[in-house]
Design goal:
Blueprint lengths: L5 H16 L15 H16 L3 E4 L5 E5 L5 E7 L12 H16 L7 E7 L12 H6 L18 H7 L17 E9 L4 H5 L3 E7 L1 E10 L3 E2 L11 H17 L7 E3 L3 E4 L5 E2 L2 E10 L2 H22 L2 E10 L2 E2 L2 H13 L5 E5 L4 H5 L5 E6 L15 H17 L2
Parallel strand pairs: 3-4, 3-5, 5-16, 6-15
Antiparallel strand pairs: 1-2, 2-4, 6-14, 6-16, 7-12, 7-13, 8-11, 9-12, 10-12
Helix pairs in contact: 1-3, 1-11, 3-11, 7-8, 9-11
């Protein structure tokens, strides 16, 4: 078995994470978006690390870097993403890529004879911070890329297809990025927990049991503008008041499903005409629904639309609901969960099992092959925030557990 020094592995990971965190579109906060010059710079750094670890490096049509070890057609895939949210923390995504490189390195350097090869994947788009779609890179690897995504535009009007060409890629090559199901033995991803469970239990690592499904809706409520001082309350057709009542209805629906880990969020709302002395004529808002059971999530979405219909009828409003993102719940493969748990136990820790309330590339890859996730404790459960933090010790233990997982994997 490979000799392990978790503290040294964690220190290496921290240095690499810090180097990537310096690559940003803005000087005072971390912003690294898909197919931007910052993405290119980050990918070049990661490619160098892969080469130094003894991996053969290639890059597919969606900008996913692949660090490859071994000649077997049967591949163990290990990965995460390089893109960030706006004003991000530095661990979300890069830790998983770096953990994969550092875990594959001892096998590559020793030219280990494994019954499978290893591909370390650095996806370019998981967050969806630039284009209104998520996980485009892993979707291409899983063979489920939606061609209509190519026409989606960023805030400046640049389409994904145009951005790919500017990045030096051809949209016509996307199909070639897909793994054949018979070649993908499994996918595993290391990621900070982005929640407080591990910290509350005093354990550094956790094994993910499943990743919640998501439904995202765009709701438009139309009413009638009017003078804020002269239209009596009972004669108003206030679009924002209707939207606010819908948000409270969503909260009530979701709270009725506590046993399913369901959550619902109205994360963005825009009101027109947007003047202090005018009754709103239109409100447009988003709904984010997540649960561990697809059936109950879809039922909740239907209940929400029933409530939207009732509310708008009572208030003399009209509405539309558009689904702009839908991804199914993904169960993590029990056999892979057990291998990760055994690896954590061998390092002297209790392998906590817990679901993921956030979406991850592993959710898409689960449609290709058995998939699993290893969660790493993060301070305060904070993520998508510059205060995001994972300790050197915890990161080192995660990489050591991933090495032991590779040794056990067949």
């Amino acid at each position: 078995m490979t000799s392990l020094d978790p503290e040294a592995l964690g220190a290496r990971a921290y240095a690499m994470i810090s180097e990537l965190a310096a690559i940003s579109a803005e000087p005072n906060r971390l912003v690294r978006l898909f197919l931007t010059p910052e993405h290119r710079r980050a990918a070049d750094v990661v490619a160098r690390w892969m080469h130094e670890a003894g991996l053969a490096v290639s890059e597919d049509a969606l900008g996913t870097l692949r660090g490859r070890f071994g000649m077997s057609r049967r591949r163990l895939l290990i990965g995460s993403h390089l893109d960030s949210v706006i004003d991000a923390g530095k661990y979300d995504g890069p830790l998983g890529v770096i953990a994969g490189i550092l875990a594959a390195e001892p096998f590559a350097r020793a030219k280990a004879k494994l019954p499978f090869g290893i591909d370390v994947l650095a996806f370019g788009d998981e967050e969806g911070s630039r284009f209104p779609a998520t996980m485009a890179s892993s979707s291409a690897c899983a063979g489920v890329f939606d061609q209509s995504t190519l026409s989606l535009a960023d805030a400046t009007g640049v389409t994904l297809a145009s951005a790919l060409r500017a990045y030096g890629k051809s949209p016509h090559d996307i199909a070639a990025a897909a793994y054949r199901p018979q070649d993908a033995a499994a996918y595993v991803e290391v990621h900070i927990e982005q929640g407080p469970v591990l910290e509350s239990k005093g354990e550094p690592l956790g094994v993910v049991t499943g990743i919640v499904g998501q439904t995202r809706l765009l709701v438009t409520v139309n009413g009638e503008a009017g003078h804020a001082g002269t239209v009596p309350m009972h004669l108003r057709r206030d679009a924002y008041a209707g939207a606010a009542e819908m948000a409270l209805a969503l909260e009530k629906i979701v709270r009725a499903h506590r046993d399913d880990a369901m959550v619902g969020t109205v994360g963005r709302i825009e009101v027109k005409p947007g003047a202090v002395n005018i009754i709103p004529s239109q409100a447009v808002f988003t709904v984010d629904l997540r649960s561990l059971t697809d059936r109950t999530r879809k039922f909740a979405a239907e209940r929400f639309e029933d409530e939207a219909r009732r509310i708008t009828t009572q208030r003399g409003l009209t509405y539309t609901v558009e689904t702009f993102h839908e991804i199914a719940t993904a169960e993590c493969a029990p056999v892979l969960q057990d291998l990760l748990a055994q690896s954590i136990s061998e390092l002297g820790h209790n392998p906590i099992r817990l679901p993921s309330g956030a979406g991850h590339d592993a959710q898409v890859m689960a449609g290709l092959c058995p998939s699993a996730m290893l969660f790493v404790r993060c301070r305060g459960g904070i993520s998508h925030n510059p205060a995001e933090f994972a300790s050197v010790s915890d990161m080192g233990l995660a990489i050591a557990a991933l090495i032991r997982f590779i040794e056990r994997f067949q």
